Structures are given as C-alpha cells and as structure tokens.
Amino acid sequence: MSSAPPPEVAALAVEVPPKLAFDPKKHINHVPPKKIWTMTEIERGNQGVSPNAVSEPFSLFTEEAVKQMRAEILSKPVLENCTYQSNLSPCQLRGYAPKYAPFVYDAWHSPQVLEIVSKIAGIDLVPVMDFEIGHINISVHSKEAQEEAKRAIAEHKSRQADEGVSGCPWEDDTPIVGWHTDSYPFVCVLMLSDCSQMIGGETALRKGSGDIMKVRGPGVGNAVVLQGRYIEHQALKAYGGQERITMVTSFRPKSPLVQDDTILDTVRAVSNLPDLYRDYTEYRLELVEERVRAQLKKIRERKNRGHKFDTPGNKAFLREQKQFFESMLKALVDEDKVIPGYTDSSHLISPDLKERDEFFSKLYVATRNKK
Ligand SMILES: [Fe+2]
Predict the structure, then answer these.
(1) Sign (positive/negative) of CA torsion 253, 254, 257, 261?
(2) d(CA 330, CA 255)
(3) Whole-prediction pTM value?
(4) Range of the domain at 329
C-alpha cells in the first residue's frame, strides 16, 4: 500500500514533466568503469550468476537524460500514488513505469543501455520486471542539517590537515538504507542528484570474511552495477547536499536456462502486491515456458537420432522445475500476511546482522503500531 510523501519530498514535486523521447545517441554518455571487483576478490567466489561483483562508478547518462528522469519521478501523480515507507528506507518511489515515466522505462529497455550494463555485470541481463523500473530512494536534508553538515565537513577537513591524514575516508557510517541483500540478481544504481558538495554516500559491502569494503558513490548521471542478491550491502549516508536521489533498477539473467534466484523478501512490503505478483508470475512462467520448450527439443532430437530416452536427465530437469515452483509458492505470500512497510531479516546472510536487524525491525513495528 502506498503512502503520502513526507513534506520535504512533496516540496520537490514537478507539476507536469516535459515530454521527451529517449534517444540513445543523445542520452547515453558512457565511459566504462576503471575497475570491476570480482566475487573472488570480495571472498564470495562460489556464489552468484556471474564472476563480477561490483563496479566502480561509471558515466552512463547525459545531463538532459537525468533532468527528464527527475521530472518524471518527481511528478505529482508519482509522489501521490507510488510513495512507500519501510524499516529499510524512509522514502521510496516504486511501480511508476511506464504509466507515469515513459522516458525512464524506455531508457532501461534500450538495447544499448542493456549492452552496457550486461558487459559490466559479466552476463547478459534484462530488467527483472516492469514494476521494478526503477526503484527510487530519496533523502532530503533540512537547511539546519545542511548547515550542520557543512560545519562538520569543514571541521573534518581541518582536522585532516592538522593531523596530516588528508585522504582518509569519512568515518561516519550512518546508513541511509540498512544492511540487506537485494531480492534480484543484479542492480544498477543511478545517481540523480548533484553530489559534488557531498561527503559520504558510499556503498558498503560485507566480504565473505565479514570485513567491510566501501565502493565510492556515483556522481550525477553515473551508475554502479552490483550483484546485490549475493552480497550484503548498505548505502551510507551522504552529508552536505540538499537531497540525494538514487534510481535502483533490478536485472535478471536474459537466458531462461540460467538459474533465477529472485525472491521478493525486500520488496513485498513496499509494493502494490497485485502488480508485483502479476509481473513476477508472468516472467517466471515465461521462463518455465522456454525451459519446457528447450527440454522437449532435446527429447525429440534424441528420439529422431534413435537414442534411448534419458531418464536421469529428465528427472533432474523435473526436480529443478519443482524447486522453481516451490520458490514461487514461497515468494507469493498471502496478501493479508504481508505487513506494509516491514521487511524481516530473512534476506540477510550473516547471523550477527540477522540478530541486529530483528531487534531494530521489532522496534520499528512497535513504534509504527503506536502511531
Ligand atoms: Fe540494495
């Protein structure tokens, strides 16, 4: 169930977004990332659908494209109908494309954009489903908070100069979105705010050993690609700017024959469930449709070549599909059992994070019930 936007977000509303068609020649400004970290480098070598874990920020869209995306996602109908709050993030916009945001929708379906994202991910990807184009996280800072941040930044800089430690990372690790793994195999996080005056805003990743690694946050029009389903991560708070808006678009492997470990644990509570469940069921059944066709082709080819029926191979195929349907039954939680705005800790991997998350989640529900 959507809710009203907080007043500071409502203040950003754009009355009527201009009409503009997405043109890859005009709106893509791609410069490849300097570095792509592998799953092995972050000690999660055997997990995931690709050897690539996370990229450094890279340029993806032009200023005009970002301006149009902002106008569409901050339009009144989006803020009024597509705002969600949760224990993971205070303000999110979801499920607005293509209805209210045709430019955003076309950008993420553009073959050129998909080629760029796939190359960085190390596997051919497609947007997971329309409902997930593109999840928006918004945080807006009050004037007082901005002033306080400016003072803190100035003090931090002078301390660095005093101590001769210039270049040390900013040490305030307050998250804007708490520790989580994503529901979908890959995400592309696009920055829609000018962060040139900000400090912080990195993505923190938890390596297999439990050590924390930070990846620099992207600047405006820039993006980061992350295999977020298999890596615990959190977006750290940025200080010093008026607002921080990111667009997180989720992807799955294009090939129906590659495993699809999609769950809905982190998105169910911040979704219009009939829309989410319809999109999810549709694409999952399409995958089964393609898999069955491929399996039938194999069976017929063997028959035509006079080969014996492959009983163990067929049983393995059937078992795999059984598991696939079971995961769907688990994902489609009855609508009356979903607590709006509350995501539990089942999406986490590490026991200590699970425990911490359960404590804060209970606190969130208790506070919410009191209101
Ligand atoms: Fe995430």
Answers:
(1) positive
(2) 23
(3) 0.85
(4) 278-370
The string of pLDDT tens digits covering residues 123-180 is 999 999 999 998 998 888 777 766 766 676 666 556 544 443 333 333 455 666 678 8
- Which is more confidently placed, 76 or 371? 76
Instruction: With respect to residue 297, please indicate whether it lies within any of the assigned structural domains.
Output: yes
The band of 191, judged by pLDDT with boundaries at 50, 70 and 90, is: very high
2 assigned to some structural domain? no
Q: Is 189 found in the same domain as 98?
A: yes
Q: Number of folded domains in the chain?
A: 2
Q: How many angstroms is it from 155 CA to the middle of ligand 1?
A: 31
Residue 67 lies in a domain: yes
Tell me: do 237 and 293 sit in the same domain. Answer: no
> How far is ligand 1, taken at its centre, from the CA of residue 276, in Å?
18
Domain contains 121: yes
As given in the structure block, the two tokens for residue 251 are 């992807």
Closest CA to 365 of 340, 330, 336, 346: 340
Residues lining ligand 1 (ion), CB within 5 A? Answer: 182, 228
Ligand 1 centre distance from Cα of residue 25 (Å): 29
Q: What is the rounded distance in angstroms from the CA atom of residue 97 to the CA atom of residue 156? A: 41
What is the CATH number for 95? Answer: 2.60.120
Model confidence at 290: pLDDT above 70: yes
